[in-house]
Each structure stands twice: as C-alpha cells, then as structure tokens.
Design brief:
- 41% of the residues lie in helices and 14% in strands.
- A 3-stranded antiparallel beta sheet has the order 1-2-3, with helices on one face.
- The radius of gyration is 14 Å and the shape is globular.
- It starts with a helix and ends with a helix.
C-alpha cells in the first residue's frame, strides 16, 4: 500500500483515538436510533443520507450514496441492532472495510467529537 493509504489509516486512527479520549472524560450516550436510506438506489436522486442519533439527542448525518454497497442494505443491516449499542463500539466501525459500516462509524465519531 502507498503513502496515501498510510495517511488515510493515520487519520482514521487519530479520529478514533480522539473519540476514545472523549470517552475517558465523559459518559458517551448509547445509540438511540439509526436511519438508513432506502436500499434501492433512486436514479432521480443525487445523494442519499442516513442519520445516527445518540441518547441525549446528539445527531449526525452521513453520506450514504454508496453505489453497489447501498444495494440490499436493509438485508445486511438491521437498524434495531444498533439501538442501545455503545457509541464508541460503533465508532470503531470506521476502521473496517465495509463502506456502510465505515460511514456509520465516521458519523458517530463526528457526533462524539
């Protein structure tokens, strides 16, 4: 892998470390709700967004125009499985390889920070 990949992984690690530091200082609420876009890509739309809400009301949007990764999202990800999950656990999805999990993890990091 090249320098660009290493830089991206460094940013990913840094963001996760910051979220962990916040978790050391305060109690981070759990996930209250996750809203995913429709699983079928609508050709009339330019973008799709999902929403993560933590208990306490902190909310973040994530870009979910994920092409083929968006197909069958409702079968791969049960929104109710996220309810009550530790937000830091979900934030760690950002380090994964699945586009949807990465997007969800990043938005939770943004909500935490």
């Amino acid at each position: 892998m090249g320098r660009c990949y290493n830089l991206i992984m460094s940013v990913c690690s840094d963001l996760l470390a910051l979220a962990e530091q916040v978790g050391d200082l305060i109690d981070i609420p759990t996930v209250r709700q996750l809203f995913l876009p429709e699983p079928a890509i609508d050709a009339d739309k330019d973008a799709e967004f999902g929403v993560v809400e933590l208990d306490g009301g902190a909310t973040g949007l994530f870009y979910a125009w994920l092409g083929d990764s968006q197909q069958g999202m409702n079968e791969r990800f049960a929104m109710e499985e996220f309810v009550g999950k530790d937000a830091l656990e979900v934030a760690r999805y950002f380090a994964g390889k699945d586009d949807v999990f990465c997007s969800i993890g990043l938005v939770v990091i943004n909500v935490i920070l």
